[in-house]
Specification:
Helix content: 40-55%
Distance between the termini: 23 Å
Structural class: alpha+beta
Number of helices: 5
Number of domains: 1
Radius of gyration: 18 Å
Number of strands: 5
Strand content: 15-25%
């Protein structure tokens, strides 16, 4: 396989990976946020915290997750309030989506396309 073909294939894999990430986020509505580069999964508690459920979550490690997908541990209620005031997502860690998750979905999609044609 030539380098141009490899590059094209890898670009297709990345596009499919991004589409799958969006699909997973959509399935779980606004409560799940997945970072774009490393596919880390966060439980987004922003709406719950803004709607009076802050007391339920303050005993957990909460993070501000910024637009560029960097994060910061929030060590006090004041920091949680400040992050919310500034419009940042306030989340709890869930973990990474295994890379083989994406490849198994792509594999299934590939075979489904082959069956159609």
């Amino acid at each position: 396989m030539e380098q141009a073909d490899k590059d094209k294939f890898m670009k297709m894999i990345e596009e499919k990976s991004q589409a799958i990430t969006k699909a997973v986020e959509h399935l779980y509505s606004k409560n799940i946020y997945i970072t774009k580069e490393d596919h880390f999964v966060w439980l987004d508690l922003t709406d719950k915290l803004l709607n009076g459920e802050k007391w339920k979550w303050l005993g957990h490690e909460l993070y501000a997750v910024y637009e560029d997908d960097t994060e910061q541990l929030l060590e006090s209620e004041e920091q949680v309030d400040e992050a919310l005031k500034l419009g940042h997502k306030v989340c709890m860690e869930v973990g990474f989506i295994p890379k083989d998750f994406y490849f198994s979905l792509l594999h299934e999609m590939f075979h489904a396309v082959l069956k159609i044609y």
